Task: inverse folding
């Protein structure tokens, strides 16, 4: 292989890698967007559930305040409050997990973006080098053509 074809193949290979890196970065961007949306949904659900929990607790407390309660009723209230607490903790864990996933996807997104920028910079350098080589080759070809033209114009001298 010649150096010219090697450089051309390198430029083509680098362009293909750039397209792959760009596609990978876009897929990661989409994953991050989905995880951010999941986080927003989890937070919204948490707010709705918290309001629901507050209403249920108020209903339990107001029924307790109506009058004396027997031990079974107190046990049911305690169980209901415990169940509400358990659901609240599970929901908080769900929100924390969504936040963790969103941070992880954001970190991957930044890493891939940095890798893409690095590859883009290298690709640009290779393209500049290839353009420089093409200019040098064109200049050499022009000089050779000029020399051939001068030789063709110059009268041939006698041989001694």
Result:
């Amino acid at each position: 292989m010649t150096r010219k074809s090697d450089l051309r193949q390198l430029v083509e290979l680098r362009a293909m890698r750039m397209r792959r890196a760009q596609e990978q970065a876009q897929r990661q961007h989409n994953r991050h967007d989905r995880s951010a949306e999941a986080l927003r949904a989890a937070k919204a659900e948490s707010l709705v559930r918290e309001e629901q929990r507050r209403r249920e607790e108020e209903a339990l407390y107001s029924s307790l305040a109506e009058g004396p309660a027997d031990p079974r009723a107190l046990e049911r209230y305690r169980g209901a409050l415990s169940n509400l607490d358990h659901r609240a903790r599970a929901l908080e864990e769900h929100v924390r997990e969504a936040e963790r996933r969103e941070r992880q996807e954001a970190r991957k997104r930044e890493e891939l973006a940095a890798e893409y920028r690095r590859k883009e910079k290298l690709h640009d350098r290779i393209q500049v080098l290839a353009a420089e080589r093409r200019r040098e080759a064109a200049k050499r070809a022009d000089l050779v053509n000029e020399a051939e033209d001068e030789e063709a114009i110059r009268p041939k001298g006698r041989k001694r």
Observations:
- The CA atoms of residues 32 and 105 lie 5 Å apart.
- The radius of gyration is 37 Å.
- The chain has two helices and no strands.
